[in-house]
Write the structure tokens for this entry.
Amino acid sequence: MKFTQNSYMFDMVLFELQDIAGKEHVSTRASDKEVYSIDYFWISEMWHDRQAGRDITRPMADFIVHPANAEEVSKVLKVANNYKIPVTTWGGGSGSQGGALPVFGGIILDTKRMDKIYKIDEKSMTVEVGTGIIHQTLEWELEQKGLSTMHDPASARCATVGGFIAHRGTGVLSTKYGKIEDMIVNMEVVLPTGEIINTLPVPKTACGPDLNQIFIGSEGTLGVVTKVTLTIHRLPESRKFRAFIFKDLSTGLRVGQRLISENLQPSVIRLYSENETKEVIKKVLGIEKTGAYLVYGFDGKQEMVDLQMKYAKAIADQEEGEDLGTELGAEWWKNRYKFFFPPYMFHLPQCFGTLDTVATFSDIENVYNAMKEVVETRYPMARFIGHFSHWFPWGCMLYARFIIETPPEDPHEAIYLHNSIWNDALRAAMKAGGVLNEHHGIGLKLSRLTPELYGNSFQIIKNLKKSLDPNSIMNPGKLGFGV
Amino acid sequence: MTKITQNNIDTLKACRYCPMCRQSCPSEFISYRESDAPRGRAILLHSVYLGGKEFDSSAIQAIYNCFLCGACKSWCSGQELGGYDIPELIKFARRDIVSHGLAPQSVQEIRNSLVENDNTRNLDSKLSCTALVVEKTADVLYILGEGVNYTNPEIAEAFIRILGHQQIQYTLLKDEPTSGKELDLLGYRKEAQEKAKNMAGRIKAAGCKTIVVSDPLVYDALKNDYPAWGLKLESEILHVSEYLLSLIRSGKLKLKPTQMKVTLADSEFLGRNNGIYEAPREVVRASAGENFAEMQWHHEYLQSAGEAAFTFDGSAFKRGEELGRKISIKAEDINAEVIVALSATAKNNIAATTGLRVMDIVEFAANLMV
Ligand SMILES: Cc1cc2nc3c(=O)[nH]c(=O)nc-3n(C[C@H](O)[C@H](O)[C@H](O)COP(=O)(O)OP(=O)(O)OC[C@H]3O[C@@H](n4cnc5c(N)ncnc54)[C@H](O)[C@@H]3O)c2cc1C
Ligand code: SF4
Ligand code: SF4
């Protein structure tokens, strides 16, 4: 923003925004600026936590706009282009990467008013929704009709459908039903310059590149997704789980790989490293065990589930798993969100981060070991834990975490330590065959490492950005793009 | 600023960065602003109580935009261990805001009206349906609460019909005063306690064995606030639904079966604060039997009709219909024909948004008694 709040130009722009969305849907209140300056990114939280007695503040938006539909979004973006004002799209603000933070001020575009369910098509098994809907709200509506998207993330109650699309989000049932990106049939997108476009009605065409793929995972840097059609499923007749303890992580990984490659089609596989088994599982499920805890689950027609359960158990038995039975598996399912509520969840003053990555079955254990080693040897004050929760035909994701109980009091020092761990751990992961992230996205947190990940192919993404967003107004500072 | 309690600090620290109950917060989905969500309020209060910032007027508004409905508590899976309590935190902050003379104009106006006229709406007490009451000696004292007293006399008439039919001697309080509950919820504890003292005195003077209350806010005040403030009432205190149920159980009150499909809109102050969920259901079932159906959200996961929504964004709250509509949609989803409500506020907010029949629990019973 080139003008300050006490200049009349501020009021001139404010008026244009109010004219578009309605006066009550544009805020310049101090309270909103403050609240929209913190998402689930540790640094934004820490900076707020440490403000007492320090001369520090967080970057804040100048205007917070709540548009009702794509037309209003389009008009806002045109105004933003006219004055070259940064625009940061905000869904639920539950992203952990700082993606929704208005780091260069300007406009926050809160999507939550775009929360209509337009159509549930039980023949095509699709649902068309505004992307500002809180995902759980959508699920509860579908559930009334015995349906579900089967996207079941821990943040369903706080994140929007659009936020998941922007970050390529995933849920606990992804192993069978895919990540959000696998559920998209078509989308309505407002381009940075204000044009409203629709992707093709269906995705599996042979009509050239799939436009959906340009916007999925683009984190609000290439446009605003305003509407989406998602696939839906009937709620399964049966859902069963079984939990085991394996002697070590390697065995657990082998079991997971066999469940996939022997084509049993589990909906859930969760494997916890030895130290996460000890720490988290004990805290939440009250089980005290050594080894690697693994829970798998199947859903569908009762008889098929029973068969799948039988074959899965045979694999676990062959690998000498200690059978904890179906109850502990079901208990895990019942408590699957509980991990994320205080006081169970990590919280300040702790410093923590979710170093999620993904690699092939051949590489994943090396990735885990490389990250663990680098964190544990270079940062003795940090604990490293991890679990493997989303499995693909070729590999699986690692949900690793570092936790420091007492990070430096000085906020600048704390950022230095935080960023150093991220750099070192992710460079180790990339070297071993992993990537920067699997389902939380890049945001501000990992922006600096993105060109490194892509190497010379990052130029393609930069060119795309330049042609779609010539004034670079959309979410500057994120996803490897500068201002 | 006033010294904050440890429990409030725990709530601040847990909730400030936690978005996990936000989908349940009715105020957030009125304005769609993050500052009107539980996390947003905790961030703002954290800045004040632990961050060394002054209260700014927009943060104060966000604190007064909370409906104190308790949905955040119901949806919090950390409750058991953490005991986080945003409504208590908000009430604390409001008292602090008031003590520093920072309450918004709209709040001060409601306070003045309550202090001077014993109602939130600046109405002359002559307009209340207890204006012409002649107090009598009786077993039962019926307390209406502001909504019934000023805007929904039909609810009082229905209850009086039942009492008459049952030949129960009852009395009302002439110019029924405010219980002080609204004042307390707005942060005016001193004034609230004075009003409570007055109300308790009037109740004691009436000398009834049983107090039956229509309004969930008044019920909550008599049951919880008065004892906490050292105001002991000797009489038994019942919500109308509990009283009706006792008449039904004793066989004195019989309801005709209804063929209509009936559902119930729970009350946050009765349910979440006092655990009253079953009594109104049993009353409804006494007539509707199998025709009673639950909406998607009920018991502790109820949808708020805005029982304590007094102001929003610096003016009197005028968007109760948006809350009511959410409830009527759910009633329509299950093809209900009748929605039974438990407060005048709920009745009005829901009725304004649906063609279905909406009635208070006492109207339901009065219409069907034999
Ligand atoms: C307790 C907790 C548990 C979590 N568990 C999971 C989990 O199980 N699985 C998972 O995938 N994630 C999880 N997350 C992370 C987070 O919920 C996801 O990253 C989610 O995708 C963010 O959605 P949001 O609506 O909150 O987006 P925000 O945080 O508001 O925004 C995230 C990014 O998306 C962009 N954006 C938002 N909406 C749009 C839109 N309509 N068009 C274009 N860009 C947009 C923003 O600009 C920003 O860059 C969890 C988070 C929390 C707090
Ligand atoms: S009440 Fe519970 S769920 Fe809600 S913000 Fe606080 S800790 Fe989170
Ligand atoms: S009490 Fe109700 S309105 Fe207030 S923050 Fe909690 S859920 Fe929202």
